UniProtKB/TrEMBL annotation:
Name of the protein in question: Expansin-like EG45 domain-containing protein
InterPro entries recorded: Expansin/allergen_DPBB_dom (IPR007112), RlpA-like_DPBB (IPR009009), RlpA-like_sf (IPR036908)
Signal peptide: 1-19
A Pfam family assignment: DPBB_1
Keyword Ribosomal protein recorded: no
Domain Expansin-like EG45: 27-126
Amino acid sequence: MGQIVMAIVFMSLMSKEIGLFVIGDVGTASSYDPPYTRKADQFPPGNLFMAMSEGLWDNRAACGRRYRLRCPSGSNGPCKDGTVDVTVVDCCPKSPCPSTILLSTNRFSAISEYSSAKIKAEYIQI
């Protein structure tokens, strides 16, 4: 009986771990400079927003989703430590989109040492 309980607990923990990998992804991020296409009252407080490339925008289905991002880097990379939380408010205004996600300038500067660069980004829906 004890082995069955242990197996159930183990499988439960494994399914949670696997689930984290399913909803996370790796892509590229760039700064999303003004002028923005949305009205000012449509942005979250503090300009904590991003635009997504057409494939992730999914015909407006992504609008309002929240993501946690981090920029992984080596010893001489362009990244700062930590994560940022952002809300999707728009589709990438350029075609083709220069990155998977475009961060507002203040969100981009929170994770990158550079003001205008394309960086690797890991993101997970929260």
